[in-house]
Amino acid sequence: MPQPKGGSSHRTVLDKLSRFLPQLVVAPSFLLILFFVYGFIIWTGYISFTDSRMLPAYEVQGFRQYFRLFAMDRWDVAFDNLLVFGAFYITLSLAIGCLLAVLLDQRIRAEGALRTIYLYPMAISFIVTGTAWKWMLNPSLGIESYIRGLGWESFRFDWIVDKDMAIYVVVIAAVWQASGFVMALFLSALRSVDQEIVKAAYLDGASTTRIYLGIILPSLRPVFLSAFVILAHLSIKSFDLVVALTGGGPGYASTLPANFMYEMTFRRNQIGLGAASAVMMLLTVAAIMVPYLYSELRGKRHA
Amino acid sequence: MATLSIENAGKSFGDTDVLKDISLSMDDGEFLVLLGASGCGKSTLLNMIAGLEKVSHGTIRVDGEVVNDVHPKDRDMAMVFQSYALYPNMSVEKNIAFGLEMRGVGRAERKAAVEEVARLLQIEHLLDRKPAQLSGGQRQRVAMGRALVRRPKIFLFDEPLSNLDAQLRVEMRTEIKRLHQTLKATMVYVTHDQIEAMTLADRIAVLKDGRIQQIGTPSEIYNTPANVYVAGFVGSPAMNFFEVTLERDGDQIGVMLPAKLKGVDTPYFLPLPAGGQYHSHIGQPVVLGLRPEMISQATTAAPEDPVITCDVDVVEPTGADTLCVIRLAGRGAKARVSPAFACEPGDSMEFALDMSRACVFDAETGMRLYG
Q: For residue B250, which of B237, B231, B234, B269 has the smallest C-alpha distance?
């Protein structure tokens, strides 16, 4: 069909435009992420090799900041805290969330209301959680003084001011916040389990406990993995909960690497040292994420 | 090996009665099919037999003993589910052996039992695989293996073939029938597919709205359906129904059936061979049921069959037979003729009606009258 010349050239422009439209739409956010996330990761990495203090300096000094970092007791405490916090936070959240989900899965009444109640902590910011738990755990205001008021004069629950136990206080508050979320993840997965499998196992003579432990929970492996990855990176970047709950104290007994990084970079004019600690955190996250992504991508290619 | 009897069993969820007054009994080694449309309560009945649903009223007996309150695992029944319900995290071997393991059977004995069943079902090469790595038909076999390995008293099947494609379904149907012949076990099989029911069953129980409509052998169900529902549900294409009146013509009792010829309704008197028994119903409205194969080409019919001539609106060849859509008593009816005799759509042809096999139902209750 013959077409007017202007019209056809107009059409080719539109055709070209529509062909590149997806790229055009994605380009701005791609560029912004490239610059602000990956650009600054590279910049931080570079700074960690310099002798930057209050202001960034660009003269490369080698691994000096890393040697300083590893020599600091404060960093040792922060990293040990991360290991303790991460281990307890992840296992307890998984265990409690999973247990709650299994209990809620018994087709009980008021399930919707209970689910909302358990899920709600996730909607609260860490600062609020931290402040509320700080009041509750404060020996002279919270639980300890309440129980003593009831007559148990020798009752002690002062972990928040005990330098060996303070990190466990952070664990308690964080688990309180996250286990509801883990529960929601598991509950939706439990709901998608084929009820006929449960019936079949029942007829095969398995007890309810055995059905859950032997059949249902193992089939939720992907959910365990997702929950683990989410909790793991949450625990590594934990910062505000410590700020609100213990302020990193007593002393620096309950600091986490993120708090360490903030302290060095923004309050003590040790940008280079802060950058080195940030790089260490990035490597920790990568150590968890890379195998996960690798297994995910590989699994997809095989499927 | 066991007998099963159900007496006046019912099931209610709150105020809704899902099953009402179900009574049936099965001999040792019988294959019973529970047939019905979805929502008729057939799966609920099966679950009640298995013990997965509580019995609200009545009793269920296995070998004469009431099992109403016996735990499912102690009833010694095995069930094959529609979704196969294989344990996704276990290998095929573990899946099959799970029931034995739960019953404390030793490792060596389990292995021998699994191998025997695997050989029977030809799945020996699959024992190390996970269910996700199997095709639908293979999963079906594993699900059956899991039931077989325990040598239960009664096998229960809950629509086991409905997730398979048509060809595989026919194959597995034969397989199940062969298994039943080999094992001579008591089996209860739930399905909505009337062909499956006809081909597999020793007896069929047709359910509708939580009630058993009829229990009988496949040929009883097909040839002497108890009511309009059973007559219409079993058979494909479905039976043709005509609302007519019983009349007397001389010493013959029959029905008046108008057939459309050249656009005009032409009435034919069709005598019923065993007409005498309808004596007391003369003048009453009835429903005449004729299966498509009872309306066939006049050329090859028995000489005593009445012949009608009518227009053919639509012609549907199915290969072995050709279906002709004609208009009788004001509604479309299907006739099954041999392809050699089928006419063109729009033409008219002669059909013979096999009135000796016709069913007559009460117009009000839908129940079959006599015969």
A: B269
Say if A68 falls within a structural domain: no
What residue in B sits closest to A220 (Cα-Cα)? B89
Number of domains forming the structure of chain A: 1
Nearest residue of chain A to residue B143 (CA atoms): A200
- Chain A residues whose CB is inside 8 A of the B158 CB are 196
Cβ–Cβ below 8 Å for A201 and B82: no
**Is the separation of the CB atoms in A89 and A175 below 8 Å?**
yes
Nearest chain A residue to B88, by CA: A219
Closest by CA position to B334, among listed B348, B343, B322: B322
The minimal CB distance from B88 to the residues A203, A210, A219 is found for A219
Q: Do A196 and B102 lie within an 8 Å CB cutoff?
A: no
- On whether residue A15 sits in a domain, the answer given is no
Residue range A66-118, pLDDT digits in tens: 888 888 888 888 889 889 999 999 999 999 999 988 888 887 777 788 888 88
For residue A155, the Cα-to-chain-centroid distance in whole angstroms is 34
- Per the CB < 8 Å rule, is B73 touching A201? no
Domains in chain B: boundaries? 4-233, 240-362
The H-or-E segment that residue B108 falls in is: helix B107-121
Name which CATH class applies to B4-233.
alpha beta
Strand duo B211-216 + B203-208: pairing: antiparallel
Dihedral angle sign, alpha carbons of residues B224, B230, B234, B235: positive
Q: Which residue has the tokens 């959240």?
A: A93
Whole-angstrom distance, CA of residue B176 vs CA of residue B185: 11
Q: Give the residue numbers spanning the domain of A165.
A: 74-302
Does residue A40 belong to any structural domain of this protein?
Answer: no
Predicted-assembly ipTM surpassing the 0.85 threshold: no
Q: Check if A205 contacts B (Cβ < 8 Å).
A: yes
Instruction: Phi first, then psi: give them for residue A206, nearest 5 degrees.
Output: -85, 145
Angle (deg, nearest 10), helices A40-47 and A271-302: 130
CATH of the domain at A124: 1.10.3720.10
For residue A206, being part of any structural domain is answered with yes
Residue A199 and residue B85: Cβ atoms within 8 Å?
Answer: yes
Q: Decide if B158 contacts B122 (C-beta within 8 A).
A: no
pLDDT at B336: 93
Q: Sign (positive/negative) of CA torsion B49, B55, B57, B62?
A: positive
A118-155 pLDDT per residue, tens:
888 888 888 888 888 888 888 778 888 888 888 887 77
Identify the segments of chain B with pLDDT beneath 50: none
Identify which of B73, B85, B98 has the shortest CB distance to residue A196: B85
**From CA A121, how far away is CA B298, in angstroms rounded?**
81
Architecture of the domain delimited by B240-362: Beta Barrel (2.40)
Alpha carbon distance A279, A63 (integer Å): 12
Nearest chain A CA: its distance from B200 CA (Å):
23
